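the two lines:
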Amino acid sequence: MAIIEAQEITKVYSLGDIDVNVLRGVSLTIKKGEFVSVMGPSGSGKSTFMNILGCLDKPTSGKYFLEAIYIGNLDRDELAAIRNKKIGFVFQGFNLLPRTSALENVELPLLYDGFPAKERRERALEALKNVGLEGRGDHHPNQLSGGQQQRVAIARALVNDAPIILADEPTGNLDTKTSAEIMELFVKLNTESSITIILVTHENDVAAYSKRIIRFLDGLIISDEPRGRS
Amino acid sequence: MINIPSTFRISFRALRVNKMRSALTMLGIIIGVGAVIAMLAVGTGASKRIAEQISSMGSNLLIILPGSTTAGGVRMGSGTQPTLTMGDAAAIQKECPAVQNAAPVLNGVAQVVYGHQNWSTGIVGTTPSMLTVRGWTLASGRPFTEQDVKSAAKVCLLGQTVVDNLFGNMDPVGQFIRIKNVPFIIIGVLAPKGQSPQGQDQDDTIYVPVTTAQKKLFGTSFPGMVRIIMVKAKSTEDLAPAEKQMNDLLKQRHHIGPKQENDFTVRNLTQIMQTAEQSTKVMTLLLGAIASVSLLVGGIGIMNIMLVSVTERTREIGIRMAMGAKTWDIRLQFIIEALTLSLIGGVAGIIVGISGSKILSVLAGWSTIISPFSILLAFGFSGMVGIFFGFYPAYKASLLDPIDALRYE
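prediction for all of em together
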């Protein structure tokens, strides 16, 4: 079953008089439980494509279905609800709220889904335990290492049982050892919980953890190949 | 679904992060609310005092003064010629339908002696109607009667100030005093009234029957003459008709032709006082309005800080949007933050306003009254200021593009 289906997606940015074609007709199908790496040089359109997949942006033309829901018809708040329930985001810069405990950071998606405080707390503690941060709930981001912060972000992506995780260079700010730990965590989530993971990366080492690699160049997919995990 | 308690917690945390900034922003609201409460307290105090004075004077009061007369081309001052009589007072009482009571007054100043104490005070010769007209009650004893007036009885009612000066703490009822060496029996004491609108001590007075005043105290060249007539109209609406009816009646009684000048003047005391009361009310409103301006400025301060805050926290807004915050989640977060600022400022402002009015009343001796209404008004207003001036920054925040907001450095 296709969890993500993109048909002929284009995206045009108008910079004054000049129109920039960032995406020039991208079609892609991702099935539930896949682990996909998206690679490509800067400006190849991969980030824009990820934003569209994450319902943060809308395509100029083309159709995007997420779990068979047509995204093109949705308004701002409906998109927010989709992001809340279907997608967990993991960013390169972690994007945790400063001066806010790890626990409350993890609770955030539940807060916007209207969960009562007690249940928020229980589920957030559970998610922190899943990423190996048991007992760190009271720590603030500035009291955690980079790897730990990224784990908090992953816990936040997991907490609302989103079927998809979109990770935008999740290891970009981490050293090799920590990167490996984070990637192992993704693999675990993918295999044990069959969460669909789509991650953007520049590094072949990181992409090697995935089962499928998609390469972007100049707004088009130039290669899409499965690979056995090394 | 929007979670209000959590949103409040988020707001409190955001405000705690910038304590100094939050406190300074609140200061505008504190000053505004404090000023509104203090100014309204001063204004309300002033109008309450005037209202008290009006009621102490007696309500719906008209006063007829003898007019000026012309003698050989020389115009004399008002009241130089005795023109009003007991008959006029009786006729007004009987023939003017808008009049409830009319009391003639013949007054003067005389030395009063009791034992080895003496005191100089105003003696008012009048009829029993006077107590009704002035709305005056007795603290003890009984009022004098029509019979006392007819027989020119030597009875008197004492004002509290006179009692204090002649008798101290002793009960004066039943005692004799001498007014201009004429012995009078004290039959009652008037209830204290305090100052008149003009600042006179209304309790420094002795009431005697008007006939006794004419015959024994202030001998008149002209029998039945009185100095003024005090009139109480039946109601506030009857004041104007009463004025007209008395004018017509007195013109007729005094044989004044249409071209001739009146030899009396009718003055509407209540109207004068009500005008004073009105102007105090206007002053209160004006003070309140001026104070509200500072509240408004405080509100602009909140808007300013909220705009800065939204810009500073663009990335936070982006994160929240990515996590599924809807338009109103973001909007409410910032509105509640502004509301929290203004409401905390409002509470502090109420404290400042109340202490400020107390200090004013002690230092400047103004009577200030803090009404619950003014507190409610100021608090409600500060809340509205918070919502109003918080809305635009919150609106701006909620319309941010999530991608731009996430990338914001």
